[in-house]
Amino acid sequence: MKHFIKILKKIAILLIIVLLMFQFFQIDKTNIVDNSNNISQVFQMNDSVSTILKTSCYDCHSNNINYPWYTYIQPVGWWIKHHINEGQDELNFDNFKTYKIRRQFKKLQECIEELEEQKMPLESYTLVHNEAKLSNEQKSLMITWFKRQLETMKTTYPEDSLKRPSKK
Ligand code: HEC
Predict the structure, then answer these.
(1) Ligand 1 binding pocket includes 116 (Cβ within 6 Å)
(2) Whose CA is nearest to atom 23 of ligand 1?
(3) What is the rounded CA–CA span in Å between residue 33 and residue 46?
(4) Residue 146 alpha carbon to ligand 1 centre in Å
(5) Is 57 near ligand 1, meaning CB less than 6 Å away?
């Protein structure tokens, strides 16, 4: 028994050392403040839409991320950063204007889908960010807004520029 406790102690100490070492590897928290390619430069939006995007989506889909205190604690920060990177890769509202027309169109469609299926904002996020949770009204406001932009695109661009060219 004594021997066993000794081993346990050693493992605990080792674990603490490893966790302490982790803290030297902090995530990159640099934000780029540049609005020139933001989605608001492409589509008109009122304050409600812009506020919802900011509070419910921008922490993963923009270049302006809010990093709470616990992102300074590894491996929590790594896990969150992974989500942010994935989210930015999929859709970055701050880069929206740089997207090809086809991609912009696709992303609007995806936003509607994600909202309708209640997949976004991620549940693991709204658990700690209560303010990011969308009420039914906010959700339908966003869906309506995204749909209206889709319609605008349809009337602005020829149909084949919005769809992937079909392979022959
Ligand atoms: C906590 C981070 C986080 C928040 C907040 C968040 N997302 Fe996401 N989002 C992700 C991640 C991670 C992915 C990629 C993996 C996936 O699809 O689950 C993603 C993917 C997406 C996609 C692409 C899905 C596809 O079809 O491939 C869309 C569209 C999207 N998010 C829209 C939104 C909208 C709109 C909001 C705000 C209402 C939002 N997200 C809030 C993390 C987030």
Answers:
(1) no
(2) 90
(3) 21
(4) 15
(5) yes
The pair of three-digit structure tokens given for residue 6, joined into one six-digit string: 């000794």
Query: Where in the chain are the domains?
Result: 2-161
Cβ of residue 120 lying under 6 Å from some atom of ligand 1: yes
Question: How far is 75 from 141, CA to CA, in rounded Å?
Answer: 36
Q: Are 55 and 131 in contact (CB under 8 A)?
A: yes
pLDDT in tens, 82-91: 999 999 999 9
Q: What pLDDT digit, counting tens, does each position of 36-80 carry?
A: 999 999 999 999 999 999 999 999 999 999 999 999 999 999 999
Beta carbon of 81 within 6 Å of any ligand 1 atom: no
Q: Say how many C-beta atoms besides its own lie within 10 A of residue 66's C-beta.
A: 13
